[in-house]
Amino acid sequence: MMRAALPFYPLTKGRTHEVCGAGAYGFAFALAAKIGGNFLWIKEAWEAQQLNPNGIAAFLDPAHLLQCSTKDQMESLATAEEALRSGALPLVVIALHKPIGLTEGRRLQLAARDGKSVGLTLIPEGMGSNAAETRWRCSPAFEHTAFAAQDSTLQTWELIKNKSGTLGIWYVRWNTASRHLDLVSASRE
After folding, report:
1. CATH architecture for residues 2-188
2. Could you report the per-residue pLDDT of 145-185, keeping only the tens digit for each?
3. What strands, in cross-sheet order, belong to the sheet with 118-122?
């Protein structure tokens, strides 16, 4: 294994990106650890799923996480826009459950640019905004690999949209001891 040298990762500052799939939360926490500092996690109040500090601790100190619950998606978008524009936080994560239009996506991009922050939108599979700089699909790799029995932590990160370059698929593993992302060679399969 080697330290991750993924193209387009960490994500470009001053831009908003999207991630979907079962590994989306891991992607977000790995990104937060890579960027460093405090970060904001925005979700709608009705969403029953809560972030577990014990799970976050494998990536970074949970004290760096600021959580915000909003009444609806409109308020989530407004909160994300303000947080991105302020530049006070290097990363703003927003969980969306309904599609957003080009106007809303563009407003997030402009806010990220103004604040020189990274915006990451967690989206359901098959959803996304045309305004996103990149879109990633992240999932456990156990169904794709011959060595799944020995390694349940392997992830597949697939870059499925990229305004600035090519697409690709990588196998990665979070190294809890060093708090770094390891790139796993495809030849290991």
Report:
1. 3-Layer(aba) Sandwich (3.40)
2. 454 555 667 899 999 999 998 999 999 998 888 888 888 87
3. 2-3, 180-184, 168-175, 155-162, 134-140, 16-20, 118-122, 91-95, 39-44, 65-70
